[in-house]
Design goal:
This protein is of the alpha+beta class. The chain is built from 11 helices and 10 strands. The protein has a 6-stranded mixed β-sheet, sandwiched between helices. A two-stranded antiparallel sheet has the order 2-3. The longest helix is centred in the C-terminal third of the chain and has 37 residues.
C-alpha cells in the first residue's frame, strides 16, 4: 500500500512538472503596436461621425498621438515595459476595471448562469433534488482533484497548446466585498475538504472527502444532504446570503461590520474557502423560464433569492430537481466552468451506475446465499 502511495505521488509530481513546463512555454500576451491600437480607435468612432469636420479632428488627434515624443508614444513605452514585466499585461486591469470595481449588484449584471437539462424520467432512489445534487457534487470534486493533480488534458488550438490557468480559478474562489473595489480570495485546490450547502437561507459546511481525501460516493453525499434538509433552526437565523445581492458598497459596509464578530468572521472564512456553494431550494419550478430565473437571480425572496451566496460559484437545484449553475465571473470565463460541469456530470453518473451495479451484485449474492 505504501509503495502505491509513493508511485502515485511521483506520478502527480511528474504531471505537475510537465504541465508547468508547458505553461511556461506559452508566449506572453503581446502588446499591440500603437498604430494598430489607434486604427481600432478610429474605426470605433466612425458611427459617431456626423460630418467631415468630425473625421478631420479624429485624424488630427491620431496623427498627434503617433508623433515622436508625443503622450501616445510615452504611454506606449510604459505599456511595452509592463508587457516585459508580466506574462499577461492586461489580466489585472481587466479583472479590476471590468469586474471588481463594478459597484452595482452582481446578479443579472455580472454573473452568467446556465440551466441543466431536466431530470430524467426514470425512477431515482429517494429525493430527486438531493440525488441529482449529490451526483454533481461527487463529479465536481473529482474534477477538482484532476485539476489539482495536473491531469486535465491540455486544450489545443490545432497543434498549439492553450493556457489552462483558468481551470485553477474555478474552485475555492470567493469574491469579498470591499469599498470601491472588491477582492478575490483563492484557496488552493487541496486545502479545503468542504463545500457550503444553503437550505432555507442557512449555511452548512459539508465535508465531502473521506479520511484518505477520496471523494465520498454520491449515495453517501445524498444522505448528508437529506439530513441537512431535515434540520430546522430554532429560532430561525438571518438569511445573510441575501446581502450578497446588494450594491457592492452597501454589502462591503455590512460585511465589514459583521466581520467584527469572531463567529461571523470564522463563518465568512468557511464560506470563502469552500470549493463551491450548493443551493437546495424549497420551491418548485414549472418550466424553463422559471428555472432560468431561479438560476440567475432566485426568482425573488419567496423562492430562492435569499438562499444564495452570489460571491461564489453556485450549483442550484429546485425541489423538483431542476436547476443550473451561476458563476462568480471576476477571474474566470464562462466556457471553462461549463466544460468542468459536463465532465463532472459524466463522472457523477458513472459513479451512480457503478454503485447501483454493486448493489445489485450484492443483493444477488445475498439471495443466492440464502437459497443455498
Amino acid at each position: 500500500g505504501e509503495e502505491k502511495k509513493i508511485e502515485k505521488k511521483k506520478t502527480v509530481m511528474l504531471r505537475r512538472a510537465m504541465s508547468s513546463l508547458q505553461q511556461q512555454g506559452l508566449p506572453p500576451l503581446p502588446v499591440p503596436a500603437l498604430a494598430a491600437t489607434l486604427e481600432k480607435l478610429r474605426l470605433s468612432l466612425v458611427p459617431f461621425i456626423t460630418g467631415p469636420s468630425d473625421a478631420q479632428r479624429i485624424d488630427a488627434g491620431i496623427a498627434e498621438m503617433l508623433r515622436p515624443g508625443s503622450p501616445g508614444q510615452r504611454l506606449q513605452q510604459l505599456l511595452e515595459q509592463r508587457g516585459q514585466d508580466r506574462r499577461n499585461w492586461l489580466a489585472d486591469w481587466w479583472n479590476s476595471h471590468a469586474y471588481l470595481r463594478f459597484r452595482s449588484c452582481v446578479p443579472i449584471n455580472v454573473s452568467p448562469g446556465f440551466t441543466f437539462c431536466d431530470p430524467e424520467p426514470e425512477q431515482r432512489s429517494g429525493d430527486v433534488q438531493t440525488a441529482r445534487a449529490a451526483a454533481l457534487v461527487h463529479g465536481l470534486m473529482r474534477v477538482r482533484h484532476i485539476i489539482a493533480s495536473d491531469a486535465m488534458p491540455v486544450e489545443m488550438l490545432g497543434t498549439a497548446p492553450l493556457c489552462m490557468q483558468q481551470y485553477r480559478n474555478v474552485f475555492g474562489v470567493g469574491r469579498v466585498p470591499r469599498a470601491e473595489e472588491d477582492a478575490v480570495l483563492q484557496t488552493a485546490e487541496t486545502a479545503s475538504r468542504h463545500i457550503v450547502v444553503l437550505h432555507e437561507g442557512q449555511a452548512f459546511a459539508l465535508d465531502v472527502l473521506d479520511s484518505d481525501a477520496n471523494v465520498l460516493a454520491p449515495q453517501a453525499i445524498q444522505l448528508l444532504l437529506d439530513s441537512i434538509k431535515r434540520w430546522k433552526p430554532s429560532p430561525p437565523q438571518p438569511k445573510v446570503g441575501l446581502l450578497t445581492a446588494e450594491h457592492r458598497d452597501t454589502w462591503a459596509s455590512v460585511y465589514s461590520q459583521l466581520q467584527q464578530s469572531p463567529h461571523n468572521n470564522a463563518s465568512f472564512n468557511t464560506i470563502n474557502s469552500a470549493a463551491f456553494v450548493l443551493c437546495l431550494d424549497s420551491c418548485q419550478v414549472r418550466n424553463g423560464s422559471e428555472t432560468l430565473g431561479l438560476t440567475l437571480h432566485g426568482n425573488g425572496t419567496r423562492q430562492g433569492s435569499a438562499n444564495r451566496w452570489f460571491d461564489k460559484m453556485q450549483i442550484i437545484f429546485s425541489a423538483c430537481g431542476k436547476g443550473g449553475i451561476l458563476l462568480e465571473h471576476s477571474i474566470v470565463d464562462a466556457v471553462v466552468p461549463l466544460q468542468i460541469i459536463e465532465q463532472a456530470m459524466q463522472l457523477g453518473a458513472a459513479a451512480e451506475r457503478e454503485s447501483a451495479s454493486s448493489s445489485v451484485s450484492s443483493s444477488t449474492a445475498s439471495s443466492s446465499s440464502s437459497s443455498s
